[in-house]
Amino acid sequence: MTSEQPAPQDPKAQLVLEAATKIFLQRGFSAATTDMIQKEAGVSKATVYNRYPNKEALFFAVIEKGCSNTISQVKAIQASADSIDKVLAEIGYTYLKFTLSREGLALFRTVAAEAIRFPNIADAFYTAGPKMTLEIISEHIARAADRNEIKVQSIGVEQAASLFISMLRGEGHMIGVMYADSVPSQIQIEKWTKNAVDTFMKAFAP
């Protein structure tokens, strides 16, 4: 991520960021230009460059914006759930709701398409989103294991968390990536989440 970002209350920076999100997710990183973003935002070039020095900085900001809201919601679950199955169910639903949304899928496609040419962009996305989610789930699983709610010694905490995320994403993410018009219903997201939680709890029951 860039070391300096505009102040969050800066209204023009928000206009530029919203325009950048739209352009990047429609056209991809390589095809998008700062001219397109400037015109979409309805501001001057000076306004864009005073807040974001280049296109890469803009895309980093889009990644951070896309991931931060979901991560904040996932972190907040820590105090609201009292058992590991409830924690995983809440986290799973929150995570899938963004991951399988139009914006979440478009962001994933855009980053994946540029990963070879721009590995720093892929790293920024992985660090801000998937890695952070894995760490949060790992913390919950470790605490649940200490309470003897589950036993994950056979594969370890982080692998157990990774397995849960893999079950959670599963077919739904593949369908979403491949079919741009595919948007799952709330019922479907709840079903995928429940299947992942139920399978996880049966596999690691004490």
From TrEMBL:
Residues 10-70 form the HTH tetR-type domain. The keyword Nucleotide-binding does not apply. Keywords: DNA-binding. Coiled coil: none annotated. InterPro entries: Homeodomain-like_sf, HTH-type_TetR-like_transc_reg, HTH_TetR, Tet_transcr_reg_TetR-rel_C_sf, TetR_C_Proteobacteria. Residues 33-52 bind DNA. This is TetR/AcrR family transcriptional regulator. It comes from Marinomonas arenicola.
